[in-house]
Structures are given as C-alpha cells and as structure tokens.
Specification:
This protein is mainly beta. The protein has a domain of 43 residues. Helices cover 6% and strands 16% of the residues. It is built from two helices and ten strands. The strands form three sheets. The chain has a four-stranded antiparallel beta sheet, with no helix packed on it. A three-stranded antiparallel beta sheet has the order 5-6-7, with no helix packed on it. The protein has a three-stranded antiparallel beta sheet with strand order 8-9-10, with no helix packed on it. It is rod-shaped, with a radius of gyration of 42 Å.
C-alpha cells in the first residue's frame, strides 16, 4: 500500500547521536525518485551503479576552487593492478594532459608516470590536432609569422631530413650544429659540391673576404690551372698560370695600373741569380 508523508516545514531524519548522527539510512527499493534538487554534503560520494546517465551536457569540476592554486582537475580511470589513466587539466603546466598515473583521485594533484596516446581524426582545420599519418604524408611544411621560427629535432643525435626540397625564403638561416649534404649545397650564386666551391652564374667572381683586419689565410699549397690566354687587365691584380716564359715560373700577374696593364711574369730564383750575374 502506497504511503505519503507531508509536512508543513523542513523534515529531518537523523540516526544516532551527534550533530550529524552516527548511523546510516538505507533506502531499499527498486527505484528511488527525488523530485527537486538533491544536495549531498560530505567528504565522499560513491555511486556503485552499472550504468550512469547524466542529462546535464556540461559537467563542472572543482566548483569551490576560487583562485589559481595548483589544483589539477579531470577524469581518472581505475585500471586495477596497472597504473591508472587520467585526462585532466594540469594547473602547474597550464595545459590538458593525457597520462598514466599512480594517483588514486583522493588528492588535488595528478602524478604523471607517462604520457598516454590519444587517437583523433585526420585534421581539416588549422587548429585541429594532427595525427602521425597526416604529418608523415603532408606535402610540405610552412612556418610563417612576424617573429623567428625554430625547428628542433627530438634529440641532438637526430637530423632534420628533407625527402624533397626544403625552401628557405627568409633573410638569415642560423644553424648552431653542422649542415651535412650527401650531394651539394647551393644558392643562386654558389654551389658547394663535395670539395668543390664554384659560382653558378656565368662570369661571376668567387670572392673570399675577411672582415675587419682579418686576412684570408691558406694553410697549404695553392695550385693554379694553366690558362690558354691572358685575362683582361683590371684595377685588381690577377694572378694566373700559363706556359713559363722568360721568368721561368709560369706564374703571371696583370693589373691595369701597372705597366699600362702589360702582362708580367714572376721571376724564379735561378733566373734572378743568372740575371744578376749577367748584369754584374
């Protein structure tokens, strides 16, 4: 037989002694319906149900957090004998994290043991998370902006590799480590190929220049290939090699400001000694 209890004011059920009672209240029924708001005050609320359904589309966590204290908040999954899993907001790092953890949900922080994997769909918008498949198959990578962009490899031992062309259109490319090329390094003016440096534009000069009071220093022999004809005289001294003449060296120079640009040959020690003897 159904029973109804109606009161004209608040109704309190208290078990045992003390301000909050000392015993428990058990509702043993197939269905218990609360018509109105339900407020549960205590330190622990445990729902031992097989299926939990919530109508509210937005779940609010850490309701009483009124400042920016280091209070982590999120979802914790109990995994039995292995580390638990968590997806939560890390207040100290100011970021969402998916991790495995030894935390059991009783504290206010999550202790990360390792990052966990998250599977997402292929990105379509610029702010979407990228999958490994998308990154591996993307046709090109573009870094743009008004500030400097940095590409960093995972570890210092790994290299940045381009299976096709890597294009740099900025002003300065700064590299703190080594640049290793299996073929050649080239820009619109020079090419470095193995041990050869050469200009790419016809008739361009290849200039080695030291700044300030520095010098271009050659620590080994300097070899000149033989020229078939004399170069044109300019205001800069040109040093070149061709068949030896009266000087006996085959090393010639030419400057438009010296001897009206006439070709001169450096004289060998042997030739110089013989000439000194002949001239007395």
């Amino acid at each position: 037989m159904a029973k109804h209890l109606r009161t004209s004011g608040d109704y309190t059920i208290k078990t045992g002694t003390g301000a909050s009672g000392s015993n428990s209240v058990t509702l043993d029924s197939k269905t218990t319906t609360v018509k109105g708001d339900l407020i549960v005050e205590g330190t622990n609320t445990s729902l031992e149900t097989t299926t939990l359904t919530i109508e509210d589309p937005i779940i609010r966590l850490a309701k009483n957090n009124t400042n920016t204290t280091d209070l982590d908040s999120g979802f914790l999954v109990e995994r039995g004998v292995v580390n638990n899993a968590a997806f939560y907001w890390n207040e100290g790092d100011d970021t969402f994290k998916a991790v495995t953890t030894t935390s059991d949900g009783t504290g206010t922080t999550i202790a990360d043991t390792a990052l966990a994997k998250i599977q997402v769909a292929e990105p379509t918008a610029g702010s979407d998370a990228a999958t490994k498949t998308y990154v591996d198959s993307v046709g090109g990578v573009s870094l743009s902006g008004s500030t400097n962009n940095t590409i960093t490899t995972v570890t210092g031992a790994n290299a940045l590799q381009g299976e096709a062309n890597l294009t740099f259109d900025g002003t300065v490319l700064a590299v703190t480590g080594n640049i290793t090329a299996t073929t050649s390094i080239a820009n619109d003016a020079i090419t470095i190929d193995d041990h050869t440096i050469k200009t790419t534009r016809s008739n361009d000069d290849l200039i080695l220049e030291a700044t300030g009071t520095g010098n271009v220093v050659i620590n080994d022999t300097l070899t000149f290939s033989s020229m078939a004809s004399d170069p044109t005289a300019t205001a800069q001294t040109t040093l070149y090699n061709k068949t030896a003449g009266g000087g006996g060296t085959g090393l010639y120079f030419r400057n438009s400001a010296i001897g009206s640009g006439a070709v001169g040959e450096l004289i060998s020690k042997k030739k110089a000694t013989a000439l000194a003897i002949a001239l007395g």
